[in-house]
Amino acid sequence: MDTFELGVVLSLKDYVSGRLGEIETRWKNVRKSMDETSAS
Could you name the domain of life of the organism this protein comes from (predicted)? Predict the structure, then answer.
């Protein structure tokens, strides 16, 4: 594997983990608002 391929793989990993972090944050917000709705 040359340095270019390594760079592509690393930036893909960064992108994917960033997307996963976004999704996780959204889910936390959704569940928080659902908890508030069911609590009221």
Answer: Bacteria
Q: How many CB atoms are closer than 10 A to CB 16?
A: 10
Which one-letter DSSP state was computed for residue 15? H
User: How far is the C-alpha of 2 from the C-alpha of 10, rounded, in Å?
Assistant: 12
SS3 28: helix
Residue-level pLDDT at 39: 82
Is 80 exceeded by the pLDDT of residue 40?
no
Residues 6+ apart with CB under 8 A from 9: 1
Which residues make Cβ contacts (< 8 Å) with residue 1, sequence separation at least 6?
9
